[in-house]
Specification:
The chain is an alpha+beta fold and 941 residues long. The protein is 25% helix and 31% strand. It is elongated and about 115 Å long.
Length: 941
């Protein structure tokens, strides 16, 4: 943003008000219509409108400052916000306005006829897509009060065989008193027109599929253009116009690599012995002499839109100055003298073309043309538009007041949003596009794609095919299908794009999904997002979910007797027999000829080859299940599948409700965060070490080159030894960094699974206090994919969220309620002020962020666990030792030492010291409730 603004002097609106103008639509020149006239402004549009303007320079009457003292009549006060030097558009400023039958893509003026030398009038050349027309501007004397009028007289036309792109003119061949025309076609070929009716066509060397502006250099009789290879090339006119093919030279006389596409090219003669070529690129401003020598290259720190160059003074004078005016995409006008910026001003609008004209009353005016035909003549005023800095809000930050304001804004949003509109839009989207998924176990086959899973497992990795069928009921501009899976799962192709989809057409696509990482996924859900844009530009998104087969990741095995982590669940409600056996819910793990199914099912991981397993045990006579495992991620996978299959109900009318009896210990979640934090620290250390070793490598290489040039063989041996040793260190650091990145990725997948486990437990718990508001906060906190950015770790991104939930909202601690250990953990050490909320209290250290996250996470989850425990105690008959379990007889495979083992486990639980401030629910059970066994082989499988 510039400090100064371009002052408006005169402005008008061209007849065509739609976006029908570009950089070739503006031409400023003295047409010599009448004696002593100033420059005229010629504007042509793509709609065929051709207008010629001559701003009159008539100003409104200024207020008489001496009228009050002299006793004259008082003048009306002048508005301080208005520009006293702004002209009012008059109808007489329009010299000509005509509509041509074809679009105007270029306009220029010159001596294009064989008229006498005494005739100073110029002709107007208008370029159409398939025709070049030459017109004469004729002024007819008027005999009425309206005065003279101007008309456009066509002289001759040149039909074109191919579509045109641009044109240029000049005294080709060094002729005197006449100018010829050159038209460039879209294929890059040039067609020359002389006044005697002679025309010929030439094609330049190399491919010219991307046309670029062509300009003529009168001093050296050459043409310059930018080739599609981003090379500025110069061709001599004599070589191009040679009629004999064998004698014609096709290569340019010189070329220069510009390195980017040229938005525009301007040429000027700045002295008797030198002409310059100024090329405006996408990122640079290049100035080259007519002999191919670079004068300067200006690196632009903005995106240019258009530019115009001019010479102040006459080129034969020693004080001639080359001025370049560039317009940026933000509307700033920047003036350069050679490569030095001399002025910057702000335009009211972003133009597509800029020029310079000497109009009546304002020499050297800036002429800009907008994309919709807004024509403005301005000047560089010296009155700055000062920006007044608003006063700082030094009021203290009050979190309670901000919370009230947030609730009021949310209430206004809910009041102003009609939920029926969303339902109608969703229903319309479902009717417009139909998405069907097919992910059947029948398509499971051996995996043929590379994975990072080691081949230690005896069971080969398998893959299954995902088939998506999309049927469109109306014409669509774009249709995109995206497949989203867990990070431990890979997809052969996760994005499909279709353009210009016809109504009532069907698009089918297939992709193979398979395990790709040596980790356990947190969820088997495959989400397919179908986003489409109709012909009206409205975008809708549909989502369909499918579940991957469980046997892609686990295989059947012997159940484990004991496990570190256990979660119980029960069924409530429902109609019909929805419980069944484990074989009923997991038929893919039953061997052939087995009926009924086992009471305990063991599942071993296929992706992690260390024997990890999860055991699912069903109570004998009650609707209870236990899921136990030593690995939390595998526990999450088994629990998720069991909950989903029990919730489906096996085809009953009303499936039962699944209720979980508790959650794992918060200490286990903190251990996962600690592991991820340590791996991140090691990754940072390796990156720093690699940066140091590579810097030493560059230093040794430069030293090696110096010694090699000095031919000092003795010193060369020592440098070569250091170079080899440093190269080995770099290779070792790269290998360690690659391994560390893989470990961090696996840690992220594992943390995602553990967070999903906690979210699953809280979502299906029967004793979550507060109902929906607690579940909403917990799901937003725990159901997220762990991803570390390059600048921040996941802990740093999660810390503001957990801190906000800890001290505000439904999960905050009541000051009157004691904490889990009897004290009041509502008294927070660090007060929630503005600096703490926005993370400006020295939390740039990842270790500090990790410690703060542990403390706040323990508080939030501890409060929820305490309220769940109190709710469970208050509910009568919901305890673990109910009458149904006490009266049950022991199974056949009775464990005689069951009671002793249970007592030992209770003592170990009491002896285990949890992390301070991390309360959690311990899930215990009686021996008679579950299927007990003495050895693993005693289980019926």
């Amino acid at each position: 943003m510039s400090l100064f603004k371009v002052r408006n002097w005169w402005k008008t609106q061209c007849p065509a008000v739609e976006p029908a103008y570009d950089s070739f639509s503006l031409h400023c020149a003295r047409l010599c219509i009448e004696e002593g006239e100033k420059d005229s402004i010629v504007v042509g549009s793509h709609t065929g409108q051709l207008c010629i303007y001559q701003p009159s320079g008539g100003k409104p009457e200024l207020p008489d400052l001496d009228g009050e003292e002299s006793g004259q009549q008082e003048q009306p006060a002048l508005d301080v916000n208005s520009d006293a030097f702004e002209n009012v558009f008059q109808h007489s400023d329009v010299i000509l306005e005509v509509r041509l039958p074809f679009p105007v893509i270029g306009v220029t003026s010159g001596k294009f006829t064989t008229a006498g030398k005494n005739d100073t009038r110029l002709q107007l050349a208008v370029l159409h897509p398939m025709k070049l027309s030459i017109y004469q501007i004729v002024t007819v004397d008027g005999i009425a009060e309206h005065g003279d009028h101007t008309k456009l007289v066509p002289l001759y036309d040149h039909p074109l065989t191919r579509p045109a792109f641009s044109l240029c003119h000049g005294p080709f061949g060094g002729v005197k008193g006449r100018e010829f025309l050159c038209v460039q076609h879209l294929d890059g070929s040039l067609r020359f027109f002389e006044q005697d009716g002679i025309s010929f066509e030439r094609s330049l060397a190399n491919d010219r599929h991307i046309p670029s502006p062509v300009h003529y250099l009168p001093r050296v009789d050459c043409f310059v253009t930018v080739a599609p290879s981003w090379t500025l090339e110069c061709f001599r006119y004599q070589d191009i116009s040679e009629p004999i093919e064998e004698l014609r030279r096709h290569d340019p006389i010189w070329s220069l690599c510009v390195g980017e596409y040229a938005l525009d090219v301007n040429v000027h003669q700045i002295s008797n012995s030198e002409s310059v070529i100024v090329v405006l690129g996408e990122n640079n401003l290049v100035c080259v002499t007519d002999t191919g020598k670079v004068r300067f290259i200006k690196k632009l720190d903005y995106s240019p839109v258009c530019f115009h160059t001019f010479v102040v003074g006459w080129y034969w004078e020693p004080g001639a100055r080359l001025i370049l005016s560039v317009v940026s995409e933000s509307g700033s006008l920047l003036l350069y003298e050679n490569d030095q910026i001399i002025w910057s001003a702000q335009l009211p609008d972003v133009p597509v073309a800029i020029g310079r004209a000497n109009v009546a009353g304002l020499p050297g005016a800036l002429v800009t043309l907008g994309p919709t035909g807004a024509l403005m003549v301005g000047y560089l005023g010296s009155e700055p538009q000062l920006f007044k800095v608003p006063a700082l809000n030094l009021a203290p930050f009050e979190i309670a007041r901000c919370q009230r304001e947030l609730l009021e804004l949310e209430r206004e949003i809910r009041t102003g949003v009609d939920p029926s509109d969303a339902s109608i839009a969703n229903a319309a989207a479902e009717r417009d596009v139909t998405v069907q998924l097919e992910l059947a176990e029948a398509t499971i086959t051996g995996c043929t794609h590379p994975t990072d899973i080691p081949n230690a497992s005896s069971v080969p990795i398998e893959m299954c095919q995902l088939s998506v069928t999309v049927r469109a009921e109306l014409n669509l501009e774009m249709l995109q299908v995206t497949v989203a899976t867990d990070r431990a799962v890979r997809c052969t192709k996760d994005s499909f794009l279709f353009r210009d989809v016809v109504a009532h057409s069907t698009e089918s696509l297939q992709a193979w999904i398979y395990p790709g990482e040596p980790a356990i996924p947190g969820s088997l859900t495959v989400a397919v997002f179908c986003s489409y844009t109709n012909k009206q530009g409205i975008t809708r998104v549909l989502q369909r979910d499918a579940q991957l087969p469980l046997r892609l990741f686990v295989k059947g095995c012997q159940p484990s007797k004991e496990a570190q982590h256990k979660v119980t669940l029960s069924l409530a409600g429902g109609t019909g027999s929805a419980v069944g056996t484990l074989g009923h819910h997991f038929p893919e793990f039953l061997s052939e000829g087995t009926s009924g199914g086992p009471s305990a099912l063991g599942l071993q991981s296929l992706t992690v080859g260390d024997g990890r397993r999860v055991t699912i045990v069903a109570a004998k006579n009650t609707n209870r299940f236990r899921v136990q495992s030593d690995d939390l991620a595998l526990l999450c996978l088994g629990l998720d599948c069991l909950v989903r299959r029990l919730s489906e109900g096996g085809g009953v009318v009303r499936p039962p409700k699944v209720i979980l009896g508790g959650v794992p210990s918060v200490n286990e979640l903190l251990k996962v965060f600690q592991t991820h934090h340590e791996l991140r620290k090691e990754l940072k250390r390796l990156e720093t070490e690699l940066e140091t070793t590579t810097g030493q490598m560059r230093l040794f290489e430069r030293r090696f080159v110096v010694k090699l040039q000095e031919r000092s063989l003795r010193a060369l041996d020592g440098t070569l030894m250091l170079l080899k040793r440093n190269h080995s260190a770099v290779a070792k650091a790269c290998q360690q960094l690659k391994s560390a990145r893989q470990q961090v990725k696996l840690s992220q997948i594992h943390m995602t699974a553990v967070l999903h486990l906690f979210g699953l437990c809280y979502s299906h718990s029967a004793n979550v206090p507060g109902g929906g508001k607690y579940l909403e906060c917990l799901r937003g906190l725990l159901t997220s994919t762990v991803i570390d950015s390059t600048e921040q770790s996941y802990e740093e991104m999660l810390l503001p969220v957990v801190r906000f939930l800890d001290q505000t909202g439904p999960l905050r601690k009541s000051t009157s309620t004691p904490g889990p250990s009897g004290d009041n953990d509502g008294v927070i050490d660090d007060a929630l002020d503005e600096a703490t909320l926005y993370g400006t209290v020295g939390e740039t250290d990842p270790t500090v962020c990790h410690d703060l996250l542990r403390r706040h996470l323990v508080r939030v989850l501890g409060r929820v666990n305490d309220r769940m425990a109190s709710g469970a105690k208050a509910a009568p008959g919901s305890g673990r030792n109910s009458v149904d379990f006490e009266d049950e007889s022991l199974p056949e495979a009775h464990n005689e030492d069951g009671e002793e083992e249970e007592e030992n486990e209770g003592e170990q639980d009491k002896a285990a010291e949890p992390i301070p401030g991390s309360p959690s629910l311990k899930i215990g059970s009686s021996v008679s409730e579950w299927v007990n066994y003495e050895k693993v082989s005693d289980l019926p499988m």
